[in-house]
């Protein structure tokens, strides 16, 4: 039979096929090949009269996330809270760089807008406009988000405590996902999602994932980072040097755009911080190689 893995738990893979759910295990040869089935995989599997069976083969994947392990995603809804924890553009840009690297379309959703005063709401509207001008979907309400979920496989991701499970319960109340209060001592939410699963919603699929307290954006060189910021990548075509890092080189079109406020300074600061981290990691690696 042919179907899709919609949940993985305790060594079992739950495959949806022809309107039914089958409990399966993976054959031993997958481990020997260094392969592992993931939620979202399309698989061929065997089954017995009790609705149990074995995965026989795994189909090709068009994209994937490793942490959490989920594949074949149409889009990722990145949830950032407006408050508690406060909105963090640097963390958001790390998510966006990761999704660019994994070839997954991002949708940005801001939760807890009701906790903002009028001035803070105006500031969030300005931030939203910056990201929309770049080309991102940036949603400040559930009404903005819902049309984007239709007939898509969407994974929901975000920093711990931003209200992912609360949002998903509003979107699909039948899920009844567990939620937790913000930890007073840590200033962030407790982990309430312990495994990845796909659920039916809006003629598509939605997935909750465990929260993140930090994120590995998986970009390792300056040219990749440049490409991961669409507005910078577009301007960089006019730079004097093809390998321009937009820090010290003459004839830099990005720096010129920054001077004329044609690029949002906060995004550029986030780019510079990620670039510094990448270059710092490279120096550490070179020292370790030389030492060895």
Describe the structure.
The protein has 292 residues and is α/β, with parallel strands linked by helices. 34% of the residues lie in helices and 25% in strands. The strands form four sheets. The protein has a six-stranded mixed sheet with strand order 10-9-8-11-15-14, sandwiched between helices. Strands 1-2-3-5-4 form a five-stranded mixed β-barrel. Helix 2 (89-101) packs across helix 9 (265-291). 33% of the residues are buried. Mean pLDDT is 87; it is low at 179-193 and 283-290.
Features:
9 helices; 292 residues; 6-stranded mixed sheet; 25% strand; alpha/beta
Tell me, what's the shape? globular
Work out the strand percent. 25-35%
| Total beta-strand segments | 15
Residue share in helix: 25-40%
Q: Helix segment count?
A: 9
Q: Could you name the ranges where pLDDT drops below 50 across 5 or more consecutive residues?
A: 179-193, 283-290
């Amino acid at each position: 039979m042919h179907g899709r893995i919609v949940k993985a738990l305790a060594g079992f893979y739950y495959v949806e096929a022809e309107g039914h759910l089958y409990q399966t295990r993976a054959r031993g040869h997958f481990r020997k090949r260094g392969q592992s089935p993931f939620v979202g995989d399309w698989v061929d599997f065997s089954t017995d009269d009790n609705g149990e069976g074995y995965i026989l083969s795994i189909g090709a994947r068009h994209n994937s996330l490793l942490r959490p392990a989920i594949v074949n995603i149409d889009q990722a809804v990145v949830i950032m809270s407006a408050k508690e924890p406060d909105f963090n553009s640097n963390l958001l840009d790390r998510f966006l760089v990761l999704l660019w690297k994994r070839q997954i379309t991002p949708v940005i959703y801001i939760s807890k807008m009701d906790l903002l005063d009028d001035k803070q709401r105006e500031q969030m509207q300005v931030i939203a406009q910056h990201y929309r001008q770049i080309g991102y979907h940036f949603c400040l309400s559930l009404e903005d988000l819902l049309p984007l979920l239709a007939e898509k496989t969407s994974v929901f991701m975000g920093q711990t405590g931003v209200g992912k499970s609360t949002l998903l319960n509003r979107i699909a109340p039948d899920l009844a996902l567990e939620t937790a209060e913000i930890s007073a001592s840590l200033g962030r939410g407790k982990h309430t999602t312990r495994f990845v699963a796909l659920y039916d919603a809006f003629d598509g699929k939605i997935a909750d994932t465990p929260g993140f307290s930090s994120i590995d954006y998986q970009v390792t060189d300056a040219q990749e980072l440049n490409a991961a910021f669409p507005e910078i990548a577009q301007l960089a075509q006019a730079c004097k040097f093809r390998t321009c890092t937009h820090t010290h080189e003459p004839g830099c079109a990005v720096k010129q755009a920054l001077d004329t406020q044609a690029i949002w300074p906060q995004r550029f600061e986030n780019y510079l911080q990620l670039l510094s981290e990448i270059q710092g990691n490279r120096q550490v690696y070179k020292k370790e190689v030389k030492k060895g």
